[in-house]
Amino acid sequence: MGVILQHCTSMAWKKDLFEAPNLEILNAEGCYELNDFPSYLTRHKSLVKLVLYRCSSLETLGSKLEMSSLKELDLTCCTSMRKPPNFGECMKNLSVLSLAGTAIEELPTTVSCLVGLKKLYLQHCQRLTCLPDSIQKLKSLTILDLSFCPNVLQSLHSLSALTSLSTLRLSRCFVTSQESWSYNLTNLVSLTDLHLSQNNFVRVPINIHELPRLRHLNLDYCPHLKVLPELPSSLRELYAQDSESLDTWHSNVISKVCCGFAASANHDSDGILQMWVAQKQIGLTTGEEIPLWFVHQEQGNGVSVTLPRNETLALALCFRLCPMNSHNFLKLTRMLSVICNGEKFIKKDLTVMRETNHSQHFILCLTSDYFVDQFCQDYRFELVLPSYFEMKVESFGVRWVCKPDIQDLKKSGTETS
């Protein structure tokens, strides 16, 4: 049984309406006049889902929640809420909690009672000053969103015990460009997705290369970011678009991650690495178009190469895309397709592209499984773009990644360690 009170006045909150023992869902989205949550509901034993989204006058849910069946609690955009409730020990079933966009200043230490919590959304809680140490007891937590919470950086150490955490969002948390930041997240052994977009750091202050399962890294819209961090071989998607200060080719980060991918991807069913990176702007001209590491290069959309005789582990492609017009245009996302010898040869969907006013590099690295079965020595690769697309491929580079490349990578790593 469910009750929907969307946009209702406080007069609709009659006690007898909620006394049904089988009430499982209560949706009170947009009840702007609701100031206080009825105390008799804070102990409801059958309620599974409680939605109070945009109840902008709601200040409190009472001193303590003891709702033993509750699995989802949505308090998003309850902008008057400064203090969240304490949680009773019976609330072990709560798996999703959203306090996003509230005015809370801290989480209660009783958050440790939410041992079944899997998703915690705290984005845009700009008054949130810290995270309690008790958050370390949330061993089931897989998603944590702290975007637009700049004051919680001092508490990132408390995340070290969250060994099940797979997605961490820290967009717009680093609001100044000081280089003294350094955060060790090595213990997040399950982390696969890390969002660091819209930050003002000059260098990424997190030891990215020590995250053993990281697959997706977002560094979009980081205007002061100068260099890419060392990247783990587990990485499969990198976004660094509209980060116009970025020197993409500093310290050969891209070539290293391509070689690392080639060395490890044969043990991975998802044998494809995709990277979108901004091209650094130098005065009125652009920086290096395609790095020399991509030894086969041509201007325009397309490049022809011959498969080498030595053992080839992967194929690395680099496309340089530029806006066709200098004026601002609506930013849209488009699906991409790469063709080989006139045919589409990558079956899975590639990452979507966002049109921008800056030159971008799209780098693709594929395992040998994508081309060894074609029984062909000569290849021509092209990037397919819609005719109405407002960006074009200016130049193209290719490199076959072979065993000597991997050996050189390991040798250089030994020399620098």
TrEMBL record:
The keyword DNA repair does not apply. Pfam families: C-JID, LRR_13. InterPro entries: C-JID, LRR-SigEffector_domain, LRR_dom_sf, RPS4B/Roq1-like_LRR. Coiled coil: none annotated. Residues 286-402 form the C-JID domain. SUPFAM superfamilies: L domain-like. This is Disease resistance protein. It comes from Arachis hypogaea (Peanut).
